[in-house]
Amino acid sequence: MKISPEQAAMVADLANLDLSPEELQRITHDLEEILTHMETLNRADTTGVEPMAQVLFDAAASPLLRADEPRPGIGVEGALSNAPLSGAGHFKVPKVIER
Fold first, then answer.
1. 17-43 burial string, b = 16+ CB within 10 Å, else e?
2. Does domain 5-43 have CATH number 1.10.1220?
3. Does the reported pTM lie above 0.70?
């Protein structure tokens, strides 16, 4: 699937990436390769193939890893007890995103 450098630049901008012209050219090519592969996968005939919920391990009929049992939480004071900076019941962190 063909994409334009402008479309690749828009994707990079959404990901907060500042790419050089060479990087933009490479990412455009890489995105085209990924989308072409996805088109190939979309054409695969999956008729009669059962959907899979877990693919990383053999599971029993009920693939739960452990019983779901409620436990008491640690509370706001416990959560904030080791925070370097907190206030008004919240963690305080430095601003990390600039646009």
1. eebeeeebeebbeebeeeeeeeeeeee
2. no
3. no
